[in-house]
Amino acid sequence: MNIIDDNKPNITPISSFGEFKLIDRLTKNFKCQNKQTIMGIGDDCAVLEEKDNFKLISTDMLVEGVHFDLSYTPLKHLGYKSIAVNISDICAMNGVPTQVTVSIAVSNRFSVEALDELYSGIKLACEKYNIDLVGGDTTSSLSGLVISVSILGQVKKSKITYRKGANVNDLLVVTGDLGAAYFGLQILQREKEIFKDNPTIQPDLTGHDYALQRQLRPEPPSKYLKILDELSIVPTSMIDISDGLSSEALHISKSSKVGVCLHEEKIPIDYTVMNMAAEFKLNPIAFALSGGEDYELLFTISQKDYDKIKKDPDFTIVGYVTDMSEGNSFIASDGSSHKLTAQGWDSTK
Ligand code: ADP
Ligand code: MG
What we know:
CATH topology of the largest domain: Phosphoribosyl-aminoimidazole Synthetase, Chain A, domain 2
Number of strands: 14
Radius of gyration: 21 Å
Bound molecules: adenosine-5'-diphosphate, magnesium ion
């Protein structure tokens, strides 16, 4: 049955809305009524009042065929990733994860042993990041596997970092390097196509360990928060990089009511990704800007904190914050200035 009747007026196909426009529309009439709800929809986590701390809560769903392909995703890695991506949202608020609930919808095609594998990855991530699995839900699915994880965390009130705190002249900083996860996905998809055409050919994944690990079994950016804490830096704003650097920079711009300016030549790319991108004739900057799934952090700091991080290779200054009236810009390596868009940058403007 097609639930969209073309003859009826006022029926809008979902495809005409982007994800963020859809969320805005569905949630715009909801107002928080409890005074403990400090932040509802609109950041990486919801924030709830609790004595000296804030409680953080976030949820993320992974759907087979949309977020993962089981023909090349080991279930153990998938379990690990499902926890890692949720921890990343807690990190984006400068928080520490504490508990998760895990809900799965699963079809008969899975064996108990396969689900054991999934849960062994979940356990590994929970142990590594000191998180308790405290519940969930299990149900059947007529199509693929769905994994929905909700995570709780906490942060000292003085350390909470929203998307909305960036100030004009702040520096824009990213952790680690970008683009590798998307590159890993390209490799896996390419090998899958080759295998489909000729099942006797073994996949050639040699030399791509880093990109594949970043795609299949990402680590959340927890270690960087420890370093920031040791340096006594509380970012003025922060977001995790799940959808690509450009999209996340635009979220900070919108929430903080500022402009952002990104410099192409500053964007950190791992050397193995640089080399392979050249070989494949692909642009690694496009991977960083709009590839997604890097699970690094993008944050802003006051210029007075510059000296504290300038020598630390964990952090790279990729741009700065401007007045909102200046818009969002991307300075290409040749010095030309362009409009920054969610997909990357607009070469015509
Ligand atoms: P992230 O990429 O950090 O996981 P999202 O872009 O998925 O965040 O979501 C942005 C905001 O919208 C978050 O505050 C999230 O909780 C909220 N949100 C997303 N989907 C829904 C929904 N279906 N109903 C209510 N709130 C939602
Ligand atoms: Mg997020």
